[in-house]
Amino acid sequence: MANPFRRRMKLKRLSPFMLINLAFLTLLAVIMLLPLIFTLNQAFKPVTELFLFPPNFFVHHPTLSNFRSLLMSESVIPFTRYFTNSVLMSAITVTGVVMVSAMAAFGFSKKKFPGSAAMFSIIIVSLMFSPDQVWITRYVVIANLGIMNTYWIHILPFLAMPVCVFLMKQFIDQVPEALIDAAKIDGAKERTIFLRIVLPMCMPAVSTIGILAFQQIWPETESSLLFTSVESQRLLNFFVGSLTNGSGTTSSSVGSVNGVAGQGIQAASALVVFLPFVIVFLSFQRKVLQTMANSGIK
Amino acid sequence: MSATETATAPAAARAQPLGTPLKRKSVLKRMRENASAYVFVAPFMITFIVFIAAPVFLALALSLFQFDSVTAPKFVGFDNFLSIFTEDRLFLRYALPNTFFYAVIVGPVGYALCFFLAWLINQLPKKWRDYFTLALYIPSMGTAVSMGVVWMAFFGADETGYLNRLLLQFGFIDQPIAWLFDPRYFMWIMILISLWQAMGIGFLAMLAGLQTINTELYEAGAVDGISNRLQEVWYITIPSIRPQMLFSAVMSVVGTFKGGIVGSSLIASTNQDITPGNSGLLISNHLEDYFRNRFEIGYSASLTVVLLVMIYAMTRFSFRLFGPKGDE
Fold first, then answer.
1. What is the pLDDT of residue A30?
2. Measured distance CA(A96)–CA(A87) in Å, rounded
3. Containing domain of residue A36, as a range?
4. Cα maximum dimension of chain A
5. HSE-CB for B148 with a 13 A CA cutoff
6. Across the interface, do A42 and B212 touch by the CB < 8 Å criterion?
7. Of B58, B159, B212, which has the smallest distance from its Cβ to A140's Cβ?
8. Where are the alpha helices (DSSP H) in chain B?
9. Where a domain ends, among A36, A63, A90?
10. Are the Cβ atoms of B149 and A266 closer than 8 angstroms?
11. A137–B265 CB contact, under 8 Å
């Protein structure tokens, strides 16, 4: 039939449907981004513009003074310490989650061992139990493990993400069994099969669970609040939270900076929390699409 | 191979009376053969048991106790649940209906938005998809804690608030509305913010799923008489990305029950102690209150169990809809 051909031709040119679609999505994208555009502008506003009435949405004379007061705050623990903590803990946790989940997913997907079915069905059930829901009893567990007031509290509790194993297994299921058998015949060890064949074929999933893990740990405030009383072990978003609502310990933070003048500092700190997200996502996203195009998993 | 098999068969027949030890041995043998599999699964299973399974079971256990973390826990049976459903005014009047209302709107609408928008983006030429994906996904990365400053400016109580100014300018209202202090609007603002953040990882999963659909399927569908996009979506797209649809549904459920943080960060940035008239009190806020302010760990554990049961029910429903055993 000529049908498929015509279809492809239609995609090349812009049909009315495509135009409406494009216009709608553009409008929506702008609306979705409004709060962030606002934050961006607010962060660079000088105090005089913050007090303007009626307020300007866009900044007219951008200044770095908000970022400067964030950096030079008179707190005991400098802003940079929280930032470094967050970067290090996130890097370790994301790597950990990806390895732990991919290994488990490989085990569940490509090996039929006694207990595998039962274990995996438990994981399916636990998909819905995100750690947030049971944080009260998680607190009790962690308090009894003796890892309170160590950096482990930002790593260990986050390693097991059933969601990541589930997602990863769905992708590994699509790796043909024949490929693994062929590698086995060639004498490849389990570890080699996992690292050299399965993982490279599942890079889209690896990227996705990487993002998922990063989303879990980077904005984390509960672990800083509940599991440690050492201020220098706390994470960035906890500090930012204490800026906006004064929930943190006042001795260490800049103190609550509500009110109009504080808005600029709050926006600046929100931006600092936020930008790494965008950067991480952008770099991962490119990888996802690239591997999608190259590997052609079906 | 087949020769050895036939050779061992009579041996197995002879060992019939001792059937069970033989069976156990074979399980052990299979376990030993698959030793490497356990090595692969172990790191996850250990952390899973310690940090997820144990807390869930501990919640189930503690829900039967009166426990304030100072005196020894006292077994009270189902008394906690009894008080939750008969005496706890805050729970019955606000937390339960609010959670229900919030979940019923944010869950399905957010989910539908994820699918619809992913589908729309997938219709675009490849080179444009990235930008829209990014624009729609970015809000889900905005953490509730750091976005407070934005909502205060947007929903500001006086005419400096952007929404008020806009509405005043166009003459929809005569005087500014204190959006974040009014029980009539608070919940809707929470819902709006949650929907703004709804295009998260489930959205990405659907998008990834859509991109892997074999285009030949659509061509075959056209041959088989599918004539419009709606039919295409129903008969080809949705069945093709069923696994991603299920994953996304579960994510929607989980995300929906995280909604408590939206309300609590809104009241934190407006210096309120509770949501106006408790209009935004969700079960997750309610149990946090019992844990943090009243130190009733047993009671908050029972509330956790109530929450888990609700999540379980909704997830079961999602599996019904999109599970592997659906209508295939």
1. 92
2. 14
3. 18-63
4. 75
5. 30
6. no
7. B58
8. 2-14, 19-33, 35-48, 54-62, 79-86, 89, 96-123, 126-141, 144-154, 162-169, 183-196, 201-212, 215-223, 229-232, 238-240, 242-256, 260-269, 283-292, 297-322
9. A63
10. yes
11. no
For tokens 């888990």, name the residue: B308
- Chain A residues with beta carbon closer than 8 angstroms to that of B272: none
CA of B154 vs chain A CAs: smallest distance (Å): 8
Contact B291, B297 (CB under 8 A): yes
Of A111, A129, A156, the CB nearest to B56: A129
Q: Quote the mean pLDDT of chain B.
A: 82
**Do A51 and A138 fall into the same domain?**
no
Q: Are A55 and A86 members of one domain?
A: no
- B 113-152: CB under 8 A from A: 117, 120-121, 123-125, 128, 130-143, 145-152
What are the residues whose beta carbons fall under 8 Å from the beta carbon of A132, sequence distance 6 or more? Answer: A222, B258, B284
**Pick from B41, B91, B40, B26: nearest CA to B302:** B91
User: Do residue A129 and residue B141 have CB atoms under 8 angstroms apart?
Assistant: no
Q: Which two tokens stand for residue B229?
A: 């996009």
pTM metric for this prediction: 0.82
Q: Tell me, yes or no, whether A136 and A248 share the same domain.
A: yes
Superfamily of domain B89-322: MetI-like (1.10.3720.10)
Instruction: Please report the number of interchain residue pairs, chain A to chain B, with beta-carbon separation below 8 angstroms.
Output: 287
3-state secondary structure of B241: coil
Contact A278 B131 (CB under 8 A): no
pLDDT in tens, B229-262: 888 888 888 887 787 788 788 888 888 888 888 8
Of A113, A137, A270, the CB nearest to B31: A113
A44 and A87 housed in the same domain? no
Q: Which residue of B has its CA nearest to A238?
A: B145
DSSP state of B65: E
Which of chain B's residues have a Cβ under 8 Å away from the Cβ of A111? Answer: 34, 36-37, 40
Cα–chain center distance at B201: 11
Q: What's the number of domains chain A is made of?
A: 2
pLDDT of residue B130: 82
Query: Are residues B153 and A190, on separate chains, in Cβ contact within 8 Å?
Result: no
> Could you tell me the mean pLDDT of each successive run of 10 residues in chain A, 298 residues long?
50 75 92 88 86 79 86 76 91 95 91 83 77 81 88 90 83 85 88 89 82 84 84 84 55 46 80 83 65 32
Task: Name the B residues in 239-278 with CB < 8 Å from any A CB.
Answer: 243, 247, 250-251, 253-254, 257-258, 265, 268-269, 271
Taking the CA of residue B273 and the nearest CA in chain A, the distance in Å comes to: 11
* Tally of CA atoms within 13 A in the half-sphere of B59 that contains its CB: 27
d(CA B301, CA B297): 6
- Put simply, the answer to whether B51 touches A288 (Cβ < 8 Å) is no
Are residues A141 and A263 located together in one domain of the fold? yes
Give residue-wise pLDDT tens across range B174-228: 888 888 898 999 999 999 999 998 888 788 878 878 887 777 888 888 888 888 8
Q: Which positions in chain A touch B44 (Cβ < 8 Å)?
A: 100-101, 103-104, 159-160, 165
